[in-house]
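ingest -> validate -> predict -> emit
validate: passed (alphabet ok, no gaps, 342 aa)
predict: started
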Amino acid sequence: MVFSCRHPLKALFPKKNDACISSHLLSLLNNFETSLTASIAELVPKKDDHFITVSWMIEAMHSLCETHQSISTLIATTDEDLPVSDMEESMYADIGSKLLELCTAFTSELSRLNHGNMLLKIAFSDLEEVSLSHIDSWRQHMASKNPKIENCVEVLSSLVESINDNLHHGLYKKVKKGCEEEKVLMRALYGVRVKTLYIFSVFAAAFSGSSKNVLKITIPKVMEEVEEWEEEKEEEVIPWEEAFMELQNMIMNTFLSNKVMVIKDVKAVEAGVEMVYAVVQEGSVPSSLMVEPLKQSVMELSEKVDLVSKETSCLFDTVTSARDAMFERLRTKYEDELAESN
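emit:
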């Protein structure tokens, strides 16, 4: 899935307009983008592997939660003199609702994985008599499809379209001569959206088992020129772009080498279960050397899945709180406008 967009940031921060942006706001933006760059760089896999791991998923979701908390803080910091902007309303009313839908889908799949782990714990509770019926139930459960995950592709596509529409046909045009606070937020929100969309697409691919769900995000150096600035030819530098492209390329080159997205921890448990199943079917009793490491792997997988769920809940709560705060600001805004009209 390809997400290619013309560069929205040149319209927001052309070189000739730098003097119009206060040093305070530029400092806020620089600090945010420095933090965003570091958080993306930390997600670049340190070792070559052909699988994604649950540990990486924990780190990625935790990173997203922190990024959304940071953008909420940035919005609150510029809030005193800044009314609710179109781009903020779009972020938390339209895009935010879809992010919550994806969080719910991921939580559903994580619960499904842990239900499978519970079946395995029961199956291996008695080493002398491994329960093939529970393993069969686990097999059937893991082979089933989660409709919420199947729907993620459609939701991600709508998010891509929403961002493209906002950046190229609506919001950035409204702020190119607007207040400097809006420009700071627009640029920061752009980074948040790109990071969020990409990581969510990796999760969707990992859960569905299909690498085609991973977005390939292209950020061209130069956007189509805005009429007033046709003489501007210098390229806009995005601090986090290099780190993001390294993350994306690493995932493309390693995780997607076989065009099959597999969660390493889950794959290891599946392989172990099949080995035990084959031994029991032959009428033999599997040795403790075979079963005990598998039981430990199942326990560790359950604990890690719980941590991914915890971080996903954190992100869900952060986006919900930001959306509620925005709605409260909208209510105040409309009440003030109504009072003025009377």
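Confidence is low (pLDDT under 50) at residues 6-19, 222-234.
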